[in-house]
């Protein structure tokens, strides 16, 4: 995405032309950026050829996942619906990992029937349930056990998953008990140690600490795991600070770990694959003037992009057309939903706006549409995929008559 003659373009398409053709709000994805992200991710870790399973929860659009599959990735899923989406996109079952703390009997049944690579269990109760279902089907099911390494990812508390107070995984003591339990089972085969410490991580040091914990526990368990699933959580730069995760140092830490272990590494990236491929185009409905600031009321709302309301997340916000006029007042960019949290960002010295101007919120490819809802009986936006000068509609805008 860049300005050409002061006009914002996504690949070769002008934002204003997209809005004119499809209306607003509209989610736009760049295929070129997607391809580049996957290529870079592979390049950073090609020395040990990991299995890269895209975290479907970050973007559940089947067409996007089809493109991801064509570029060689598998899938990490956390529900039966996500597993169905991955299979519909053509991802091979043996490249699919099922994570999550609360898999139902129906979900476990379905995953076993589809012969996926691994079900990563997170409690003894879940292992007993998998074992019971496997036994009833006269099958041996490959599982992983998710360890909670009590590692602080130094990220938002709402997206931290690797500390002892988080609901995910099991502690060291329980882990060893479950390894011994699994060894004695005739219906499950323990193949994997799994960890995932959080999301939007921009520092390699928490990963190094996590690997140290995993190294000690694998040695102490005296068990040979076919796979070590390191999860995902790699962050992206949402604002202009340009801070990035040092993949080189993370790669060095993994290679150091692999000197003592022969397991295959699994990654579960989501945000780092799709975060910066997406943009949300919205129109200014009204400008509500105030003494100290103006409210820029958009036609996009928190139901379309939940991250700011849910996490206090900030997305870079740009005008569709650049001018040299700067507003002397602070702008509050808000949506029309009847909630005070329906607010995207507050910006000073932004370009002077008028009603019907177009605004673009950047880096919404991860947890944008996948967290969207129909709150206030609002239809979800249209989604389009841009390939150079071509536009593919990958999900139609919902219609009110279909909601009601």
CATH superfamily of the largest domain: Alanine racemase
State the distance separating the first and last CA atoms: 36 Å
CATH topology name of the largest domain, in short, is: TIM Barrel
Number of domains: 2
Number of helices: 12
Q: Which structural class is indicated by helix and strand composition?
A: alpha/beta
> Could you list the spans in which at least 5 consecutive residues all have pLDDT below 50?
158-163
Proportion of β residues? Answer: 15-25%
From the coordinates shown, what is the CATH architecture of the largest domain?
Alpha-Beta Barrel
Radius of gyration: 23 Å
The whole-number mean of residue pLDDT values reads 94
Report the CATH C-level class of the largest domain.
Alpha Beta
């Amino acid at each position: 995405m860049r300005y050409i003659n002061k006009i914002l373009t996504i690949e070769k398409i002008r934002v204003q032309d997209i809005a004119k053709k499809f209306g607003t709000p509209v989610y736009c994805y760049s295929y070129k950026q997607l391809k580049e992200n996957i290529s870079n991710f592979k390049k950073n870790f090609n020395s040990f050829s990991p299995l890269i399973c895209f975290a479907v929860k970050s973007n559940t659009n089947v067409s996007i996942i089809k493109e991801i599959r064509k570029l060689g990735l598998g899938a990490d899923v956390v529900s039966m619906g996500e597993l169905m989406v991955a299979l519909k996109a053509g991802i091979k079952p043996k490249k699919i990992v099922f994570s999550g703390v609360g898999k139902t009997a129906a979900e476990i049944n379905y995953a076993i029937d589809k012969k996926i690579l691994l079900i990563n269990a997170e409690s003894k109760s879940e292992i007993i349930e998998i074992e019971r279902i496997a036994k009833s089907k006269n099958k041996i099911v490959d599982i992983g056990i998710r360890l909670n390494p009590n590692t602080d990812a130094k990220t938002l508390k709402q997206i931290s998953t690797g500390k002892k107070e988080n609901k995910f995984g099991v502690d060291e003591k329980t882990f060893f008990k479950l390894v011994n339990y699994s060894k004695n089972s005739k219906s499950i085969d323990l193949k994997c140690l799994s960890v995932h410490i959080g999301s939007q991580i921009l520092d390699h040091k928490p990963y190094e600490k996590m690997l140290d914990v995993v190294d000690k526990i694998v040695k102490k368990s005296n068990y040979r795991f076919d796979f070590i699933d390191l999860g995902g959580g790699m962050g992206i730069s949402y604002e202009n600070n340009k801070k990035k995760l040092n993949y080189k140092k993370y790669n060095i830490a993994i290679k150091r770990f692999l000197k003592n272990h022969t397991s295959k590494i699994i990654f579960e990236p989501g945000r780092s694959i799709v975060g910066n491929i997406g943009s949300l185009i919205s129109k200014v409905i009204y400008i509500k003037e105030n003494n100290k600031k103006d409210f820029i009321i958009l036609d996009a709302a928190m139901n379309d992009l939940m991250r700011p309301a849910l996490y206090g997340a900030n997305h870079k916000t740009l005008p569709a057309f650049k001018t040299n006029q700067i507003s002397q007042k602070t702008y509050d960019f808000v949506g029309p939903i009847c909630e005070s949290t329906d607010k995207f960002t507050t910006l000073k010295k932004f370009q002077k706006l008028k009603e019907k101007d177009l605004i673009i919120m950047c880096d919404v490819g991860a947890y944008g549409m996948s967290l969207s809802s129909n709150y206030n009986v609002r239809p979800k936006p249209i989604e389009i995929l841009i390939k150079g000068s071509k536009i593919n509609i990958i999900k139609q805008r919902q219609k009110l008559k279909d909601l009601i």
